[in-house]
Amino acid sequence: MNLSSEAVNGVEIPQLGFGVYNVKQGKNSNFEQIISEAIKAGYRHFDTARIYFNEEALGHAIGNSGVPREDFFLTSKVWTTDLGYEQTQRAFEKSCKKLNTTYLDMYLIHFAGPHYVDAWKALEKLYAEGKIRVIGVANFEIEHLEHLKKHAEIIPMINQIETHPEFQQQPLREYMSRNQILHEAWGPLGQGNRSLFENEELQSIARRHQKTVGQVILRWHLNRGTIVIPKSSNPQRIKENIDVFNFNLSEKDMERIAKLDKGKRYSVNPKGFQVNP
Ligand code: NAD
């Protein structure tokens, strides 16, 4: 029922996944129960990072799910303080241990911090050893990707960047498409920002399709070929966010949403974590 995106090396990535940053525990639900709701709802692709401090709990939830490991697509990320040829390999092993797995489906450099080229060489080595199926980056700008291209054997297969209807990332997206780098959106729902959820254009499209604004936004991403990892701690929304494969947006809807781009970030500007190439 999910769609998939193919990385340049032929690996299929479930196009809709579940982001686990800051998953909130409620009165009646802990982190593992929320993940278990997501697995029951059909999610198999999970996005975590060393810095989210929940790799271990995610590993438990997956291990206890009764679903075989190979049916999951697991992503983690190396944090800025672990960048370097040796350090990154050690960080990878630690993440695997916490996630209770011998390999990762995807491993990303979280930000282009100091020594990101050496970190990339570590990812290339781990990839060659068959320990990671897809290697990529997050929050990289064109200059970082260009710099890496000069020093790398493998071009990053994916770049995970903030993207939503008010921040559509058009120039970076076009560069990535020319270089066969997949586009993955973090904050695909604009982190729940009211400016999106109260937008009249999105509300009118949602009414016409008898869907919610969140579902329209996710469908818009999928139709652009973007991989999405929406986060929710609410069982109702967890189900709602994956219930997007039984309707479609028209070209006109897509054009109307394209016009909402304001070039406006809602979250941290990654520049604070980056170094100039
Ligand atoms: P998101 O766009 O997924 O928004 C999540 C928020 O939107 C929720 O907390 C909730 O408030 C709201 N929401 C969710 N579903 C909704 C619905 N159906 N209707 C109304 N509101 C809804 O933002 P995010 O969590 O920041 O991003 C998703 C994932 O991306 C993260 O969990 C994480 O895995 C990843 N991420 C990566 C980076 C990076 O630097 N690489 C940065 C931030 C997030």
TrEMBL record:
UniProt KW keywords: NADP, Oxidoreductase
Origin: domain of life: Bacteria
InterPro entries reported in the protein's UniProt record: AKR, Aldo/ket_reductase_CS, NAD(P)_OxRdtase_dom_sf, NADP_OxRdtase_dom
Family affiliation: Belongs to the aldo/keto reductase family.
Protein name as it appears in the record: Diketogulonate reductase-like aldo/keto reductase
Residue stretches making up the NADP-dependent oxidoreductase domain: 16-261
